[in-house]
Write a structure and sequence with these properties.
Blueprint (H helix, E strand, L loop, with lengths): L3 E9 L3 H23 L4 H14 L19 E7 L4 E8 L5 H11 L4 E3 H10 L13 H11 L5 H4 L9 E6 L5 E7 L20 E4 L3 E7 L1 H7 L1 H10 L4 H16 L3 E6 L5 E5 L3 E8 L2 E5 L6 E4 L3
Parallel strand pairs: 3-4
Antiparallel strand pairs: 1-5, 1-11, 2-3, 2-6, 5-6, 7-8, 8-9, 9-10, 11-12, 12-13
Bound molecules: aspartic acid.
Aspartic acid binds next to strand 8 and helix 7.
EC number: 3.4.19.5, 3.5.1.1
Catalytic activity: Cleavage of a beta-linked Asp residue from the N-terminus of a polypeptide; L-asparagine + H2O = L-aspartate + NH4(+)
Enzyme class: hydrolase
């Protein structure tokens, strides 16, 4: 079977000064994830690996580089889902955790629950020996400056995705050589969000979904809009109805735009290795790795190709 991984670095009006680093970041993450698939690893391991790489990269709003909420704090959300069992794990509003995607995976594998939030999630992390880091180490100088600047101008989160105030959630979807699919999404959310605000990213069916019978999806964009249309599940639903992967993503994003005036993006892969990376915001950094080829893009309709050296 054909193994593929697709990653995104968030859908919004990425400013020119961040575009090169964003594209390099998604390409590196796709390569890391693909290396797992290329050595017979599972889709689940591949998406976790790719998202960890994006969380560790300060250009993205996840793990290191996360945006700050209204009180100037970091609150992180993440989900991971295994398409073979429909097992999923998520965390929301966690602090001091460098790789929330791995904590989400521990929720899936080591508890009877699907999501843990804030203090409980942090206590669970402690109980299984996941190291906490001082919040300060997750916050970049760039974010401190932007947070201050934006404080004066903030009008509403909806505008963020059509302006340069937005920020980049990260995600990955993959199918492995056994035909299993998986997805993962991780974010610091939206800058200046209310304390305790949880967006779409850690919510099953909204920020991500994976089912071996249809495919895997990871979403990004205006969280409140994505939640209202349960975007990940809507894309899966369209695939289930027989719509081709690319059309299913485009149709669902169009619906979100028409129905709730929300902009965003999504990546998707089917068990047979069909994939898509599509967005309705100005830009979205994405990359896809499959046998011999590394695809990537940033602007609408853009699709570049590099040779993939294993
Ligand atoms: N969807 C994320 C949220 O609303 C943000 C993003 O994708 O950039 O928290």
């Amino acid at each position: 079977m054909k193994a593929v991984i697709v990653v995104h670095g968030g859908a919004w009006a990425i400013p020119d000064e961040l575009s090169e680093a964003s594209v390099q970041g998604v390409k590196a993450a796709a390569c890391e994830g693909y290396r797992v698939l290329g050595t017979g690893g599972s889709a689940l391991d591949a998406v976790e690996k790719a998202v960890r790489s994006l969380e560790d990269n300060t250009v993205f709003d996840a793990g290191h580089g996360a945006v700050l909420n209204a009180d100037g704090e970091v609150e992180l959300d993440a989900i991971i889902m295994d398409g073979s069992s429909l097992g999923s794990g998520a965390v929301s509003s966690v602090q001091n955790i460098a790789n929330p995607v791995s904590l989400a995976r521990a929720v899936m594998e080591k508890t009877d629950h699907v999501m843990l939030t804030s203090r409980g999630a942090n206590l669970f992390a402690e109980s299984i020996g996941i190291k906490t880091v001082p919040t300060d180490t997750l916050v970049t100088e760039y974010e401190k400056r932007e947070w201050e600047k934006q404080k004066k101008y903030i009008t509403g989160v909806k505008e963020l995705f059509n302006s340069q105030w937005g920020h980049d959630t990260v995600g990955a979807v993959a199918v492995d050589s056994y035909g299993n699919v998986a997805c993962a999404t991780s974010t610091g959310g939206i800058r200046h969000k209310m304390v305790g605000r949880v967006g779409d990213s850690p919510i099953i069916g909204a920020g991500g979904y994976a089912d071996n019978r249809s495919g895997a999806v990871s979403c990004t964009g205006h969280g409140e809009s994505i939640l209202k249309v349960t975007l990940a599940r809507l894309i899966i639903f369209n695939i289930e109805q027989g719509t081709e992967v690319q059309d299913a993503v485009e149709r669902s994003l169009r619906y979100m735009g028409e129905r709730v005036q929300g902009a965003g993006g999504a990546i998707a892969v089917s068990p047979s290795g069909r994939w898509a990376a599509t967005f309705t915001t100005e830009r979205m950094a994405w990359a896809a790795a499959e046998q011999g080829a590394l695809w990537y893009g940033l602007n609408p309709q853009e699709k570049f190709q590099d040779k993939l050296s294993q």
